[in-house]
Amino acid sequence: MIKKIFCIGFQKTGTKSMRQALEVLGYACCGPKPNLLKQIKDKKWVKITREIEKYDAFEDNPWPLIYKELDKKFPGSKFILTTRKPENWIKSTSDYFGKKETEMRKWIYGKGSPIGNKIKYINKYKDHNKKVLDYFRSRPDDLLIIDLEKGNGWKELCKFLNKPTQKKPFPHINKGKKTSSQLSPITRTIKCFKEHGFTYTYEKTKSEIKKKYYKDILKSNVKFPEKVCILGSGPKGKKFYDKIPKDYTVVAVNRAVLIPSIKPDIWIMNNLNSSNMAWFLKANKNFKGLKIFRKDTSLNYGNAKYYFDALSSSEDQLSEKDFRPIDGKVRSKGTVAGCAIQIAYNLGAKEILLCGIDMSGDKYWDGTANQAKHSSTWPTTKKLSFLINELNRRKNIKISTLSPTKLKIPTYLGDK
User: Fold this and answer.
1) Rounded CA separation 304/189 (Å)
2) Full-prediction pTM beyond 0.85?
3) Is the pLDDT of residue 145 over 90?
4) CA 360/CA 339 separation, integer angstroms
5) Top-level class of domain 5-166
């Protein structure tokens, strides 16, 4: 059995594409972890090992720089070296990172930016690849060398990991263009407007765009129906999709918007990261109902007209012991389902039904893996249970669950 999979090619060699491919194959993947740099320098492996234990596969920095240590600490693991021609790599790296410097790149290359340091970067890139090849020379079965520019893909990867070859096209992320995360917020916003048919001029300022197109949902005139069903992506909800009462408006949270058998009326999206960007962009383009995204997601990536802003300081978060009023506000640390409940309450819902809000496990309804390992009971379960029961007791808001959940709340028994 393969213990872990480490992608040890440098950035801009197809690491994001490889990550998505591994996710298609069912592996929970971890991306860049620049916050581990200090622990690596100080050789403090407890925190690093704890992070590694959460996932199946790893790509981006710092993993390529510690492949020898990873090999020793996780024997039986597989390693993937993504490569491309040095001249293509340095051009892509320079275009992508520009003059922006980081401590991680300074540690790797001796200089924080590729601009003006072409030779230094190329020499480090070649040296790294050579050392990897030398290290695994006597163990060819443990290292896959793959060049996506040459058309390598599913055949090589699936054979290496002993998986059935996929029929769908191999992913190609960030191919030859800047990603949304590289663009400035104003450029991302204008890009979204153009893609979705809005008229705009480049002379618009960010404040003008925010004022015209983006509104705080809690300060708007939007009202929810009295009966809503908040739909999560947990697998325990799958058997209950057809039992959602017809008179309940469906509010999908995060990835649940992709559930094929249900057409939600409203989509609430929390913060984005690299692990959910690919599916989000597709869903964002296709969903035609009311979108409510967390503020940063709405302004920087989405084309949602309405946003919510969740209070996140320790004194403003949800508590499992003290009821903190949520009138006119949304408090964090209750998962996206908690945010959805607070939004629904503030916008007039009186009866809230939950489905697929498992608060446990690491799988989605379709069997694919969540990107982070969770415990059998999610850490925020007590806080969300407390909020739900207090809303029932203090505000007479009826909240129940249709599907099994770790939340300590009533089970839906119909409109009795």
Assistant:
1) 10
2) no
3) yes
4) 18
5) alpha beta
Whether residue 244 contacts residue 402, with contact meaning beta carbons closer than 8 Å, is answered with: yes
pLDDT, tens only, 365-393: 999 887 666 678 898 999 999 999 999 99
Q: By 3-state DSSP, what share of the chain in percent is helix, strand and coil, each rounded to 5?
A: 40, 15, 45
pLDDT tens digits, 210-258: 444 578 999 999 999 999 999 999 999 999 999 999 999 999 999 999 9
Angle between helical axes of 15-24 and 154-161 (0-180°, round to 10): 60
Per-residue pLDDT at 34: 87
In DSSP terms, which residues pair with 349 in a beta bridge?
none
Whole-Å CA distances, 302 to 189, 244, 307, 343, 405:
8, 28, 10, 19, 30
Among candidates 37, 6, 279, 239, which has minimal Cα distance to 135? 6
Three-state DSSP state, 81: strand
Hey, where are the domains in the chain? 5-166, 215-401
Hey, what amino acid is at 370? N
